[in-house]
């Protein structure tokens, strides 16, 4: 960890007041405490990178511009940030399996990585839809936690300062790796990996949000069953425009980030002067390269880490972290962002 890293709240809040373009990068830790069985799924889905990079502890010096290239190459070409420098943080009780309903549900026997692929969907759309129905039903029982609310309150505070006469009004954007939809209260939101409650037509490409429970009658109750149903294609979710088969609008293995999402992220990162890293280890690409890309683009940019443990350096690179606030994000964010009173009222 760089020796200049500070945990001075007053100093950070002064830097926050001076910032013009603030970007928050959120990982699974943002949702910690809301749905613990689901919160680590992004990390779990990234485990296949350990096979791609058998000795991922090795890191070799590269010119600075290469880090920017690697970051956006990974964003464009590697599904679910599947490029690892050192190690992945995965819940010890969760392992590589997806928990089913209760302690011994149906979905515990399936490897998450075997279901989150286009090939799995083509081979058995009924199975994949039952898997995602289970995940949807799990998240529908949860509410945004204090960390989610702190970001909403912070954005509202920034928006309240907006003036049509001022060109210096601060901006805020949240780039989230999570697909749980619990950050929906944020206006300027970029969902890197899509969202559980959005569906995309495999025919016409139409994307729509749907939070119905269940999304279609045929899926009702499958989250609690011990045996997989065989659901006919005609009974699976269908497009309202063309009646084509819908699929979850999330990034699967073997898929790239959408070009429009990539462009939004690039725009925000290349103009930002303060980055909040929230609940993510920072060791998995593309997110691992965000803070370094920002620092290379703007050496004066401020990077603040909110996590349950200190940010590790990437072998030859220092962390690049200017401020670090260790603890559950639901505790640190409201206080450090100066919105504790607002969160208490929400």
From TrEMBL:
Q: Which InterPro entries match?
A: DHS-like_NAD/FAD-binding_dom, NAD-dep_sirtuin_deacylases, Sirtuin, Sirtuin_cat_small_dom_sf, Ssirtuin_cat_dom
Q: Where are the transmembrane segments?
A: 66-85
Q: Which UniProt keywords apply?
A: Membrane, Metal-binding, NAD, Transferase, Transmembrane, Transmembrane helix, Zinc
A matching Pfam family:
SIR2
Residues at the active site: 193 (proton acceptor)
Query: Which GO cellular component terms, listed alphabetically, does the Swiss-Prot or TrEMBL entry include?
Result: nucleus
Per UniProt, what is one GO molecular function of this protein?
A: metal ion binding
Query: Ranges for the Deacetylase sirtuin-type domain?
Result: 2-346
Q: Binding positions for Zn(2+)?
A: 201, 204, 239, 242
Q: Which family does it belong to?
A: Belongs to the sirtuin family. Class I subfamily.
Q: What is this protein called?
A: 996_t:CDS:1
What is the native source organism of this protein?
Paraglomus brasilianum
């Amino acid at each position: 960890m760089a020796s200049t890293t500070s945990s001075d709240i007053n100093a950070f809040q002064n830097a926050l007041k001076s910032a013009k373009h603030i970007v928050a990068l959120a990982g699974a830790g943002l949702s910690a405490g809301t749905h613990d069985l689901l919160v680590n799924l992004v990390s779990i889905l990234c485990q296949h990178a350990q096979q791609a990079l058998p000795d991922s502890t090795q890191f070799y010096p590269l010119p600075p511009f290469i880090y920017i290239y690697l970051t956006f190459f990974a964003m464009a070409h590697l599904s679910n940030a599947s490029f690892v420098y050192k190690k992945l943080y995965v819940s010890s009780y969760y392992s590589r399996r997806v928990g089913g309903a209760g302690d011994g549900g149906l979905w515990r026997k399936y490897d998450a990585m075997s279901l989150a692929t286009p090939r799995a969907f083509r081979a058995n759309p009924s199975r994949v839809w039952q898997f995602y129905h289970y995940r949807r039903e799990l998240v529908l029982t949860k509410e945004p936690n204090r960390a989610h609310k702190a970001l909403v309150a912070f954005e509202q505070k920034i928006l309240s300062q907006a003036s049509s006469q001022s060109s210096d009004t601060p901006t805020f954007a949240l780039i989230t790796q999570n697909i749980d939809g619990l950050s929906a209260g944020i206006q300027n939101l970029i969902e890197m990996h899509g969202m559980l409650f959005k569906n995309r037509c495999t025919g016409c490409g139409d994307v729509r949000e749907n939070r119905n429970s269940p999304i279609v009658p045929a899926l009702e109750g499958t989250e609690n069953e011990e045996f997989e149903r065989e659901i006919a294609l005609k009974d699976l979710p269908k497009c309202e425009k063309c009646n084509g088969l819908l699929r979850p609008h999330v990034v699967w293995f073997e898929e790239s980030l959408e070009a429009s999402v990539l462009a939004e992220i690039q725009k925000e990162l290349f103009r930002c002067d303060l980055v909040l890293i929230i609940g993510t280890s920072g060791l998995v690409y593309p997110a691992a390269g965000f803070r370094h890309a920002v620092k290379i683009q703007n050496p004066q940019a401020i990077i603040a880490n909110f996590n349950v443990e200190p940010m590790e350096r990437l072998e030859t690179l220092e962390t690049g972290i200017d401020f670090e606030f260790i603890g559950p994000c639901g505790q640190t964010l409201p206080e450090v962002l100066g919105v504790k009173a607002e969160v208490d009222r929400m």
